[in-house]
Amino acid sequence: MERGQILDMLNGNACGFIEISNYHGKLLMLWDKFVDPGSCEDKDIWCAMISIERRDDTDEVWGNIEWANVVLTVPRSCVFMHSMMNIH
After folding, report:
1. How far apart are alpha carbons 80 and 22 in whole angstroms?
2. Residue 62 in contact with residue 55, Cβ under 8 Å?
3. Where are the beta strands (DSSP E) in 26-80?
4. In this structure, what are the phi and psi dihedrals at residue 7, rounded to the nearest 5 degrees?
5. Count of C-beta atoms within a 10 Å radius of residue 29
6. In CA terms, which of 29, 42, 44, 71 is 20 to 30 Å from 1?
7. In the chain, where does DSSP find H-type helix?
8. Dist. CA 54–CA 65, nearest whole Å
9. Tens place of pLDDT per residue across the chain (88 aa)
């Protein structure tokens, strides 16, 4: 997955659930997205792991997408109530 694609996918296409957590010093993101935004029948659950680093002794923070993919496809009737993501 190339730089910016995760943000493009989230921009206006997420169904409403976005979860962010610390996973062994990396950013772990989960979100749901309609498989076909035109039909809104099924939703994909996406997961991404992003390493974060500070650059050049400044306040800039950069992220490198190490992995991102669909982890599950569910019917549109499935709704995230909460997650249990709290991994250090």
Report:
1. 19
2. yes
3. 26-34, 42-54, 61-75
4. -65, -40
5. 19
6. 42
7. 5-10
8. 15
9. 555 666 665 555 556 678 888 888 899 988 888 887 777 788 888 899 999 988 888 888 888 889 999 999 999 888 777 666 655 4
Helix (H) or strand (E) holding 30: strand 26-34
Between the alpha carbon of residue 10 and those of residues 3, 55, 83, the distances in Å are 13, 25, 18
Give, as one character, the DSSP assignment of residue 29. E
Provide the 8-state DSSP code for 82: -
Angle at 59 between CA 54 and CA 61, to 5 degrees: 40
- Residue-by-residue DSSP string for 7-24: HHHHTTTEEEEEEEEEET
Q: Six-digit token pair at 14?
A: 């997420």
Reference 64, options 27, 14, 9, 21; nearest CA is 27
Q: 59-83 b/e with 16+ CB inside 10 Å = b? A: eeeeeebeebeeeeeeeeeeebeee
